[in-house]
Write a structure and sequence with these properties.
mainly beta, globular, disordered N terminus, binds CU-O-CU linkage, binds copper (II) ion
Length: about 575
């Protein structure tokens, strides 16, 4: 399954596989402190499980208080990933009225209205409680002084062995930096914060998840994620006029890969690694579930909530197609029929699947993605199963020809920014260290917590992601939904300037509003966004980062500052 993409763009001849070689050669392994026994030995597999045995859990709806605001806690509880496994300790969200679950209960809010949520960290009663997962002490080692803050810097930026947490509403637009969930403004157990989210402009599939600096990969892995649905009048009208399925036939499908110990506990590599691949497929928190469906249309909100894994999803042999109706930030202009859908971490697809001609069949949702240039020791081919009943169902839903109007943003006069995605060898953790550098070859990687540029509120900018590596980076911007202007093979001229090479094109399901975009090996992807926030009481800094959580935690996250 190894693949190699040769490129003239390779900066220093060190490839990802070279890093793996260094690691495998023992350089890093020797640094593993004695006593840190591997919870899951390298190459060990999770217990084998009967697939499609358990029904798909559907997260409940997050219940509001009488005044319409939400009080939500993060909590540790027991959860069964599969009925043949004992219960495991996980983290999730919820409240008494909604229950606690992982993924957390689904928010359903209306566009145009403010949403207030008081988030409380109840992951322990002890603010100093250590993390549940083993923390590689090398990630905590102080490796120097941060030249922006003057504070000691840990090998994995900001990593701590505690239960700090902060909630980010992924895809939310026009909000204050405070409500965005600043990765440094974390809550320790027993602490709470109230976020006042500005009204969202349109129906969309957002999601909420943890964003604690240096600990995000671990907190999300423990279960801190959930769906956040925004509805708008035009969508409700389409539902009422049977152009979209009734919400009774609509649900989120949160895709996450995990590794489990022999006794069914969550296992995460004890050594810091720049990727994480699991061999157990969870959908809505259950391993390889099945869903009984009627022979009719359903609406699924697909969300890749995995740390590193990409999915290319297909229904059975592909003869049954998806009709994609929405992307990250809202409806597409019209339904897009697709045999397969690729989702990188953080991306969503709002799809209609019509089972009406599949009565009596079992259809497996397959994953055909091959991770670019990395050895996937834990390939996952099957995701879940749909069991289509044979009793005919009444379904009068006819998808409309047009779903939404998406006015294109105008790039004329918009400033262009270039960001290089690259890695270097990090001797501190013995693995690749990913970062986002400036436009010139000589530009050093910048670190988080130092906004590298100011953006005037309500202005339009064009951003260019230049991938100088051989793996996909799903690049995500906070605060905005953008439009994808193009995708090319990245080429350097003799002066080291990046220019578009061969045009690879934008997929039809990438023509709507997006907040996370796939930037493939050695590609240049250009996006355009209007940066508009809501002035809060602090400095209005917003992160942008790769949504591979191991990359984000390392150094592949930076800040822009919105200036009013
Ligand atoms: Cu989904 Cu900065 O996050
Ligand atoms: Cu986000
Ligand atoms: Cu990345």
């Amino acid at each position: 399954m190894k693949k190699h993409t040769p490129s003239r763009l390779r900066r220093n001849g060190i490839t990802r596989r070279d890093f793996l070689k260094v690691t495998a050669a023992g350089g890093a392994a020797l640094l593993l402190p004695a006593g840190l026994t591997s919870q899951l030995a390298h190459g060990a597999s999770s217990p084998s499980l009967t697939k499609f045995k358990d029904p798909l859990p559907i997260p409940g709806i997050m219940q509001a208080d009488a005044d319409g605001s939400f009080a939500v806690a993060m909590k540790e509880f027991r959860h069964r990933f599969h009925s043949d496994l004992p219960e495991a300790t996980v983290w999730g969200y919820g409240n008494e009225a909604s229950g606690y679950s992982t993924p957390g209960p689904t928010f359903v809010v209306n566009s145009g209205t403010r949403t207030q949520v008081t988030w409380t960290n109840n992951l322990s009663t002890d603010p100093a409680a250590p993390h549940y997962l083993p923390i590689d002490p090398r990630t905590l080692a102080v490796i120097g002084i941060n030249h922006h803050t003057g504070q000691p810097e840990t090998a994995v930026h900001g990593a701590t062995n505690n239960r700090k947490a902060v909630v980010h509403l992924h895809g939310a637009q026009g909000i204050t930096a405070f409500a965005d969930g600043d990765p440094e403004q974390t809550l320790l157990p027993t602490e709470a914060a109230t976020y006042d989210y500005a009204p969202q402009p349109r129906a969309a599939t957002l999601w909420y998840h943890d964003h604690a600096l240096g600990n995000t990969r671990l907190n999300v892995y423990m279960g801190l994620a959930g769906a956040f649905i925004v509805r708008d009048p035009s969508e409700l009208q389409m539902i009422a006029s049977q152009q979209l399925p009734d919400p009774a036939y609509e649900m989120p499908l949160v895709l996450q890969d995990r590794r489990l110990t022999a006794t069914g506990k969550l296992a995460y590599s004890t050594r810091f690694n720049d990727t994480f691949m699991g061999d157990v497929m969870l959908v809505n928190g259950k391993a390889w579930p099945h869903l009984d469906v009627q022979p009719r249309k359903y609406r699924f909100r697909l969300l890749n909530g995995s740390n590193t894994r990409n999915y290319t999803l297909q229904l059975g042999d592909g003869s049954l197609m998806f009709q994609q109706i929405g992307s990250d930030g809202g409806f597409l202009a019209q339904p897009v029929p697709l045999m397969s859908i690729t989702l990188t971490p953080g991306e969503r697809a709002d799809v209609i699947v019509d089972f009406s001609n599949s009565g009596g069949q079992n259809i497996v949702l397959m994953n055909h993605h091959i991770m670019a240039n990395m050895t996937d020791e834990y390939p996952i081919h099957e995701v879940m199963q749909f069991r289509v009943g044979s009793i005919p169902a009444i379904d009068n839903v006819t998808l409309p020809a047009a779903l939404a109007t998406i006015p294109p943003l105008d790039p004329t006069n918009a400033p262009q920014r270039y960001f290089k995605l690259e890695d270097e060898f990090d001797p501190n953790v013995g693995d690749a260290k990913w970062h986002i550098a400036g436009p010139r070859l000589s530009d050093p990687p910048e670190m988080f917590e130092h906004p590298t540029h100011d953006i005037r509120n309500d202005s339009i900018e064009v951003w260019n992601w230049v991938n100088k590596s051989d793996m996909i980076h799903p690049m995500h911007l906070h605060l905005v939904q953008f439009q994808v202007l193009g995708r090319w093979k990245a080429r350097e001229d003799s002066k080291g300037n990046i220019i578009p090479g061969r045009n690879i094109g934008v997929d039809p399901n990438e023509t709507g509003w997006k907040d996370t975009v796939r930037v493939g090996p050695f590609e240049l992807v250009r996006v355009i966004a209007r940066f508009k926030g809501e002035l809060g009481s602090g400095t209005e800094n917003f992160p942008f980062h790769c949504h591979v959580l191991e990359h984000e935690d390392h150094e592949m996250m930076r800040l822009f500052r919105l200036v009013y």
